[in-house]
Design goal:
The complex is a heterotrimer. Chain B is mainly alpha-helical. Chain B is built from five helices and three strands; from the N terminus they run αβααββαα. The chains are: A alpha+beta, B mainly alpha, C mainly alpha. At the A-C interface, α1, α2, α3, β7 and β9 of A face α7, α13, α14, α15 and α16 of C.
Chain lengths: 245, 253, 620
């Protein structure tokens, strides 16, 4: 058993790592952005960008592990039915490998953290001077939106483009989850407490509001639509609704 | 793995199955002591979860209802009219007043219960020391009965404490239901957990007394007495911790 | 059986009276009788006009079931005998260890750790099977939009019960069978530290599983497996069954955890230092310790739910000063550590398998222990990442994001250890190895999608969608179940003396592996598109992803059925394996197969760890 392990060429593995990394980066850059709903707010832009960045950062790690596995399956598998002999290399410790692995994963984590905390502070960033306040009420199984200062109550959510909206959210019966799928913001509607989120719509068009917290029988149907309109249209809509009421 | 089966290390030779059962009592005791300490750790987590519940609900004080139901709407969905009454001492009839803000439960009774629990633990501890010193199992049995009696008295007081938690009656039109404030709820689960522990102690106490009298615990094999004592004293300490928290931090100013 | 047993044989079969007749059937009879008795009494003495009436009666019934079941199986004999000072004799101990009882002992309150291990295998299979049937029902309902197969009420119940059954199944999937069957032998012990507690943990689990399986029959439970408050107050009496089942289950895991730790810490044979322990023993012990921390929160939160329903307390009722956030906090204080209670034994088993199958020592044994300990330690500090979008304490978002992302460092060490172990190995591609490679593939995907979710801006988009569902199914199915199946294939020959059928095993691997990719990758797609979780129906934009996902689920089911067929068939008809089919060095392979009662004739003395594969030391 005193045979020295013959130095095996790992070129193939390095090529696989490179190719798989490229594949991972391509999937990470195009996949999520292609699949996710159309971005209609600054928060959603940031969510998508963060997903892309994290995917790109994770691609080499996944590629490395997969390439080693592929290489192992091609070159290190014992052939035949007999019990394999002990491996030529009986390495128990490799301080350099362990240290560099720990350092690399720590560096990656620190990067993700810094990016994440930065993105979080942008997400939570200033509301601005003249936000629009919308009161959101969830109950089994419908949403009601009211606009303080007016007597408007609406089952659909209408928002003006380019103006920060602050949502004050509560529930009447059980916990619901208020989520605007195109705007990357969500928070629970709780009984007895008011929660708050804000976002700034950046694109015109319709979007869905869905319940993300299981709320009983018709949870799947607790959906409503919303519309981002120009500021002028918004004022008109508000006026027309108030006349009806 | 390299093993050496020819080594004559096993004093029990090829007795096979006897090996595990002829372990010296000290070894068995050490193992059981570790189990007791692990159990106490788990119980400590339960205690901290209970106190977390208590402090958390007091901290958030949802709608100002920690100790009060003042401010709830008197007209509910469907046009039902609501009225709230405090029922004192578990009486079932609707009292006259509209007293829907409760006072903290008696701190005195709370402390009496926990101090008594701790004292019963100390009694067992003293008994165990006596057993070790004098090897007198009859005395130890008597001490265990005394401690058990203390626990039974404590259980009775604890039940009284549970009974004194006021329910809030909610009269909806003609019928009524009852409810408890967050404070009353958390006190109920803390006292209830204490009662479960006291019941376990009563079981263990009776066991110690009977076993000691029948010779299953002897002066030389006093370990079981220590195992029980460890848990017993811990229950006493946890009761005192519970009282310390719930009698000092309760009302909201 | 060795000849030395004969003189005790007679004593073991004599006397004992009724206690000798107890088995699973008497337990069922006891459970049903006492459940009926409790129901009858509650029915007669409680005020039927109270709004809590049905919950109180149901709770009484569950208490009756538990008490009767434990009485019937014999779990209360030990405490009763302790109380009156009539301790077990040697003959009693041997009787309870199942000596000379053949197959009957598998239906009894048996204290032999190997019997308990096999009972756990069956228990896991039952739970996985029931949960799996529900999974298929869920996917069938979701095959096209609209409610066609079952109505929403039934569907919601399926989702909740599927979730909880599978969680319980995976908590016991590796720790149950293998921490019981092989850990004591690996340590060089004759049994667990507390054999009677071992039987207690198994049979309390069975009694709890009985309640949990009945939930669907008694009006279901319609609020997701986390049984979020306050909606739990709206559920039918199935919720009471559920809460009681969980409280009893936590008793079972606490007892099992204490037992595992004490076994490893105090029962090791001479020379078996902590540094020479097989890595699986470490994994079992760390997971047990973590469970000891986590499960008290679970029993408390379910007890509070039960109190809210039976005596109108206000823990989660806003009108009385309670809040659903309390439920969420307590639940996730348990819930996140619990993920690692599930994961760690599976990972430990895979370390073991990677080493034996690559004919190389575990790479960096200390790193493996550090990774597992670090993961366990961090896991108790991350619970609020399940609550990023609840609105609870937004200022704590940053700190919890930090602790959560730090978890990727110890998790990364698991990859290092496995990769380092197979590196330049002489890899034996048998069934356990195949599942090992499947695990590596899936665990990478689970890990990366976990990093997305740990980031609050991304979580604000994905929380509550099927993206989360897909992520944790890559953890639980793709990683833990693969680890559990690897462990099953690896230790099966030790239990039965026969190999698990290689061909059927391979077929099942490919069906399950590809099925997992098809099912959960398309669930990721639906999640990216924005489909919320626990939906009984969905809009047309999610149609294709759901259809494909359902097809994948059927593949997984076929694979699992093939595997079940292999397990049953090979039990008596498989290829004989001999005592040490993998030519491994840890102690469980050096005892005969099946291992005799009390495992060792003479306790071995250990001089080095089990990872020395130099040929001359390998025993035939």
């Amino acid at each position: 058993m005193a045979m020295t392990p013959k130095k095996e060429k790992l070129t193939g593995m390095y090529i696989s790592i490179f190719l798989l990394t490229v594949l991972g980066v391509v999937i990470g850059v195009y996949g999520p952005a292609h699949l996710m709903p159309r971005s209609m707010s600054d928060n959603m832009h940031l969510s998508i960008l963060t997903i892309v960045v994290f995917s790109v950062a994770a691609a080499p790690v996944a590629a490395g592990v997969y390439a080693v596995c592929l290489h192992a399956l091609r070159h290190w598998v014992h052939r035949g039915d007999s019990v394999p002999a002990p491996a030529a290399s009986q390495t128990r410790e490799h301080p350099l490998a362990v240290t560099s692995w720990v350092l690399a994963s720590t560096a990656l984590t620190v990067f993700l953290l810094i990016w994440g905390l930065g993105a979080l502070s942008v997400d939570n960033g200033g509301i601005g001077r003249n936000p629009l306040v919308v009161d959101v009420t969830g109950q089994q199984w419908l949403w009601t939106f009211s606009y303080p200062g007016t007597n408007v109550q609406s089952p659909t959510l209408v928002l003006p483009e380019g103006r920060t909206v602050v949502f004050h959210i509560k529930a009447l019966d059980v916990t619901h989850g208020f989520w605007i799928a195109n705007m990357g913001v969500q928070v629970d509607a709780n009984v007895g407490t008011i929660t708050e989120i804000h976002t700034t719509p950046t694109a015109l068009g319709t979007f869905d509001v869905r319940c993300t917290q299981f709320c009983g029988l018709n949870h799947a149907f607790m959906v409503t639509t919303g519309n981002v309109v120009s500021k002028q249209q918004f004022s008109q809509w508000l006026a027309s609704q108030s006349m009806k009421a | 793995m390299s093993i050496d089966t020819h080594n004559e290390h096993d004093a029990h030779g090829h007795g096979g199955h006897d090996g595990g059962h002829h372990e010296p009592p000290e070894v068995v005791d050490g193992r059981q002591r570790m189990a007791i300490w692990l159990f106490i750790s788990g119980d400590a987590i339960t205690l901290s979860a209970l106190l977390f519940t208590y402090l958390y609900l007091r901290g958030v004080n949802t709608g100002g209802h920690w100790m009060s139901m003042v401010g709830l709407p008197t007209v509910g969905p469907g046009g039902h009219s609501y009225a709230f009454y405090e029922a004192l001492d578990g009486s079932t009839g609707l009292p006259d007043g509209h007293l829907i803000t409760q006072a903290p439960l008696s701190a005195g009774l709370n402390w009496i219960v926990s101090i008594l629990t701790l004292v019963s633990g100390l009694v067992v501890w003293a008994g165990e020391k006596g057993l070790r010193a004098t090897k007198n199992t009859r005395n130890f049995s008597a001490v265990a009965w005394v401690a058990t009696a203390l626990v039974v008295v404590t259980m009775a007081l604890s039940l009284k404490q549970l009974h004194s938690i006021p329910a809030i009656f909610v009269a909806v039109n003609d019928s009524h239901t009852m409810s408890y404030t967050a404070y009353a709820s958390t006190m109920m689960v803390i006292i209830g957990s204490g009662l479960v522990h006291l019941a376990i102690l009563a079981f263990l106490g009776i066991g110690l007394a009977i076993r000691s009298a029948r010779g299953a615990i002897t002066g030389d094999k006093w370990f079981q007495a220590r195992l029980v004592r460890l848990f017993w004293v811990w229950v006493g300490i946890s009761a005192v911790i519970g009282s310390a928290v719930t009698t000092t931090i309760n009302t909201i100013h | 059986m060795t000849t030395t047993l004969e003189h005790t044989q007679q004593a073991a079969t004599e006397g004992g009276g009724l206690a000798r007749k107890q088995n699973f059937v008497t337990a069922l009879i006891g459970g049903v009788v006492f459940a009926w008795l409790a129901w009858f009494l509650a029915h007669h003495f409680l005020d039927a006009s109270s709004r809590n009436y049905s919950d109180l009666v149901t709770t009484a019934l569950t208490f009756g079931w538990m008490f009767g079941f434990w009485l019937g199986i014999g779990a209360l004999n030990g405490p009763a005998r302790w109380l009156i000072g009539a301790d077990h004799t040697r003959a009693d101990d041997l009787y309870y260890a199942g000596e000379n009882q053949g197959r009957a002992r598998y239906w009894k309150y048996c204290t032999d750790h190997k019997v308990v291990g096999v009972q756990y295998i069956v228990m896991t299979a039952v739970l996985l099977g029931a949960g799996g049937i529900l999974a298929m029902a869920i996917r069938t309902e979701l095959i096209v939009p609209g409610n066609h197969f079952v109505n929403q009420q039934v569907y919601n119940g399926f989702v909740a019960v599927h979730g909880m059954l599978m969680i319980l199944a995976l908590i016991v999937a590796v720790a149950g069978p293998w921490a019981n069957f092989v850990v004591p032998i690996m340590c060089g012990a004759r049994d667990m530290a507390f054999p009677r507690l071992n039987a207690l943990s198994l049979w309390t689990l069975v009694s709890a599983a009985g309640l949990l399986l009945s939930v669907l029959a008694v009006g279901s439970l319609t609020m997701g497996w986390v049984v979020l408050a306050p909606i739990a107050d709206q559920a039918g009496v199935g919720m009471d069954f559920f809460a009681m089942a969980i409280i009893v289950f936590t008793v079972s895991t606490t007892v099992a955890g204490i037992n595992t730790i004490c076994t490893v810490m105090t029962m090791r044979t001479k020379g078996m230092t902590l540094a020479r322990l097989p890595i699986f023993v470490w994994a079992s012990m760390i997971a047990a310790a973590l469970g000891l921390y986590a499960f008290p929160f679970f029993s408390l939160v379910e007890a509070q739910t039960l109190l809210d329903r039976t005596v109108s307390t206000s823990f989660f009722v806003a009108d009385g000063g309670g809040t659903g956030w309390l439920q969420a906090n307590l639940f996730w204080l348990m819930g996140h550590p619990e993920v690692y209670v599930i994961l760690l034994p599976a990972v430990g088993a895979l370390f073991e398998i990677a080493s034996v199958m690559s004919r190389k020592p575990v790479f960096s044994y200390r790193t493996a222990i550090a990774g597992m300990t670090g993961l366990a330690g961090l896991s108790i500090l991350v619970w609020a990442h399940h609550m990023f979008t609840t609105g609870w304490a937004p200022t704590l978002g940053g700190p919890f994001m930090l602790t959560t992302e730090l978890i990727s460092i110890p998790t990364g060490l698991f990859f290092l250890v496995i990769i380092g172990t197979i590196w330049r190995g002489n890899i034996w591609m048998k069934l356990p190895t195949v599942w090992l490679f499947g695990f590596i593939f899936n665990f990478i995907i689970a890990g990366i999608t976990g990093i997305y979710l740990s980031d609050i801006p991304i979580d604000n988009q994905f929380h509550g969608t099927v993206f989360v569902t897909a992520h944790f199914h890559y953890v639980f199915v793709g990683s833990v179940l693969f680890g559990a199946l690897a462990a099953l294939c690896f230790w099966y020959p030790k239990v039965t003396g026969r190999f698990l059928d290689e061909t059927m095993g391979r077929i099942s691997f490919w069906l399950v592996f590809l099925g997992v990719q098809v099912t959960f990758l398309s669930m990721f797609v639906a999640g990216f598109k924005g489909m919320p979780r626990r939906y009984s129906s969905y809009s047309m934009i999610f149609e294709h992803a759901n259809f494909v996902s359902t097809m994948g689920a059927y593949m997984i089911m076929s694979g699992m059925l093939v595997l079940l067929g292999a397990v049953v068939r090979s039990w008596n008809h498989g290829v004989p394996s001999g005592p040490n089919p993998w030519q491994a060095n840890s102690l469980e392979w050096l005892v005969p197969t099946p291992p005799p009662l009390e495992n060792f004739d003479v306790l071995p003395v250990i001089t080095e760890d089990p990872y020395n594969y130099q040929e001359e030391l390998v025993r035939a």
